[in-house]
TrEMBL record:
<keyword id="KW-0966">Cell projection</keyword>
<dbReference type="GO" id="GO:0009428">
    <property type="term" value="C:bacterial-type flagellum basal body, distal rod, P ring"/>
</dbReference>
<dbReference type="GO" id="GO:0030288">
    <property type="term" value="C:outer membrane-bounded periplasmic space"/>
</dbReference>
<keyword id="KW-0969">Cilium</keyword>
<feature type="signal peptide">
    <location>
        <begin position="1"/>
        <end position="28"/>
    </location>
</feature>
<keyword id="KW-0975">Bacterial flagellum</keyword>
<dbReference type="GO" id="GO:0071973">
    <property type="term" value="P:bacterial-type flagellum-dependent cell motility"/>
</dbReference>
<protein>
    <recommendedName>
        <fullName>Flagellar P-ring protein</fullName>
    </recommendedName>
</protein>
<comment type="similarity">
    <text>Belongs to the FlgI family.</text>
</comment>
<keyword id="KW-0732">Signal</keyword>
<comment type="subunit">
    <text>The basal body constitutes a major portion of the flagellar organelle and consists of four rings (L,P,S, and M) mounted on a central rod.</text>
</comment>
<keyword id="KW-0282">Flagellum</keyword>
<dbReference type="Pfam" id="PF02119">
    <property type="entry name" value="FlgI"/>
</dbReference>
<comment type="function">
    <text>Assembles around the rod to form the L-ring and probably protects the motor/basal body from shearing forces during rotation.</text>
</comment>
<dbReference type="GO" id="GO:0005198">
    <property type="term" value="F:structural molecule activity"/>
</dbReference>
<dbReference type="InterPro" id="IPR001782">
    <property type="entry name" value="Flag_FlgI"/>
</dbReference>
Amino acid sequence: MKYFTLSSKLVAIMLGACCIAATPAIHAERLKDLASVQGVRQNQLIGYGLVVGLDGSGDQTTQTPFTVQSVVSMLQNLGVNLPPGTTLQLKNVAAVMVTTSLPAFAQPGQTLDVTVSSMGNAKSLRGGTLLMTPLKGADGQIYGMAQGNVLVGGVGASANGSKAQVNHLSVGRISAGATVERAVPNAFGRGDTVFLELNDSDFSTASRVVDAVNKRFGPDTASAQDGRVIRVRAPATNDERVAFLGALESLHVTPAQTNAKVILNARTGSVVMNQAVTLDACAVSHGNLSVVINTDPVISQPAPLSGGQTVVTATSQIDIKKEPGQVLLLKGGTSLADVVKALNAIGATPQDLLAILQAMKAAGSLRAELEII
């Protein structure tokens, strides 16, 4: 028997925890949590390398020819020339990509953690050693060198066709596995101004940041360039500038209320709303529909000595049940808590809520931005 149910049961919508209070107060936040200093940023680094010393779990070289080419090139650089036509059958080597982030103000000699990821068909990187790998930036320049023993958090075993595995075996990390070889130039110590960049563009928040900075450090210290960038006059010397930015980051600012937004995850049925979501007056109808398909086998048996064959067929019975729908009136200006209670009262599941909110938005009654991920 096959059973299909569409919106058949009342379920609790997992939004009540954040909707008990209709409009909670917005608290002041540190400026360092709302904005960053322009130019003070990380830079991504990437490199291609080889992991050796694997216990037979490396790349299958017939399917990953780039691993063999890399080994041959490495041996040539080390002064080892293989005879022409040599075919390498490697089991303990894996080609990998090495990634990390170069933090702001990193200087030569500092160490970085790196992530090592298999790019071939290696079964595991457990117990392997990464050979010296140059790490390059987006400009093609080398900013670091990585090497060391790869630590893999997973474990696996197989025998006689059976296999067991815990966590992932094709990715590992090397703590302090890379050394910075070149610093990234920045304009932090130049000029008499710094620029703050808000994490989210908002004219109201930018205006509040300017007011808070000018109140703390004096008039005309800060001015807004637009809804995201704020220009701040800073001391010229580095030591005074560092102290100034430290005090600036600790400044508390009350951000403006964010835009009303509803996030829908169509894959999981998750629905998240913020406190600014409200409704205009509207009516919502909801009904339940269930389809039951019952299949029974029917066997046709021929008479003895008739020469016939036994035939097996099936008959199906389809039963469609539709429960009466409900019409719920939602008043204008309803808070988020009231919206959730009302939709839960009519038996809306998270999947039903996706369709209901989309219909409300199309009708113009949902006062929020609808984003589907």
